[in-house]
Specification:
single chain; flat; 10 helices
Length: 153
């Protein structure tokens, strides 16, 4: 079930990116990441208002992406339903967590490494950019390990 939800969210993001692609996508993404990085350091409330403002400006794109997400997700789930019921690799889940929530240590908590997860939280509180870099380094490490090496960790 979780895989189907993640797949649907992924399809939504891909469609939203595709709709935005024609508007100098790389420039916007770079500016957005730079802006959000500054906001994360200053105040989490600013992120909410920034996303709310962006959603207000691009409401039609979001609506089109939602409308397209439903039939595409249903088609993918119907055609690949058996593959989605297979258990996911813990390594792959840890990679996704390290990329998106690694700065909070989510990938370490997921692996049962509570101490390292707390270290990531403290590091994020003191030096947020360093926590992000370390999380991305962990994601790359996990990416180049085999499942067997990852399980032995």
């Amino acid at each position: 079930m979780l895989q189907k939800i993640i797949l649907t969210i992924g399809i939504f993001v891909i469609i939203l990116v595709a709709l935005t692609f024609g508007e100098a996508f790389a420039t916007h993404v770079y500016a957005w990441i730079s802006y959000l990085t500054g906001l994360v350091i200053n105040n989490f409330a600013d992120i909410y208002y920034a996303l709310r403002g962006w959603a207000g400006e691009h409401a039609t794109k979001i609506l089109i992406a939602l409308v397209l997400t439903v039939p595409i997700s249903l088609w993918v789930i119907k055609s690949k339903g058996d593959d989605l019921n297979k258990p996911a690799s813990q390594r792959k889940i840890a990679i996704v967590l390290a990329v998106f929530l690694g700065w909070l240590g989510a990938h370490r908590f997921y692996q049962g490494q509570i101490g390292w997860g707390i270290v990531f939280l403290i590091l994020f509180y003191l030096l947020p950019p360093v926590a992000v870099v370390f999380a991305l380094i962990d994601a790359v490490r996990y990416l180049f390990r085999s499942n067997e090496e990852f399980q032995q960790q």
